[in-house]
Amino acid sequence: METLYLDLLKKCLLGETSWENEARILYLRDCAQGTRTYDCDTELHLEQRLPEFCRQFRELSRIGRFVDDRVENLGYQPTMVGRLRLENVEDCLNCILRDSIPGDLMECGVWQGGVTIFMRGFLRARGITDRLVWVADSFAGIPASRLPQDLDEDLSAARFPNLAVPLERVKSLFVRYDLLDAQVRFLEGLFRDTLPCAPIGTLALLRIDADLYESTRDVLEALYSKVSPGGFVIVDDYGCIPACRQAVDEFLALRGLTPTIHQVDWTGVYWQKE
Q: Band of the pLDDT at 231, cuts 50, 70, 90?
């Protein structure tokens, strides 16, 4: 039953159980913008009428990409990471339990909170009550770029309001999955302000989805020392945002750290702390 529950939870968080409605939203928006002509039969039978569009939509969703690589098309499912990156989280959690690696679970940069909802669901399914799930985000969108390394990455809420998900929205999604309880802790604010003084002990899993050079650097500087030996660090944007990769590479190089970095998919990577 544990496996069945977690498999269903992944499908729901990834939007796989309702992908047609996500695709319909894009179809209807195209019609409203005049790039398609609305047809009621097409709306009702989207996969039959637009098979290539639907095939592309499902494949891109599976790997955590957007139609036409436009952030405006990211959809409304609780997570945008795609199946391979969510399964990577599950694989790391299974290793943590198998090897009794101490510490809590944390994601920095959560969007709608889907990955942290899965973390809490995993703990619930395994009957684990002595670990916390930390949910850290500005909950106001990605901050405006301040450093030269980030000037090419304007992902701010002013440009992409769909990336700005309020804390109450994230909490409401935890409630929807019946997973909001005392084992979930929220840190609201910019990482440089919240992480250095956060009451976090040790971490078995640190997942970083911070996009910017500055934000990624802030997370690593504040939290890397708290990751237990044998614990896991996951970086979501390593492959798709050069500034994020630069922040990671510089952090490791300055400390003489040479972990074996494993590729998850086209952008995500992870390593195990020595």
A: very high
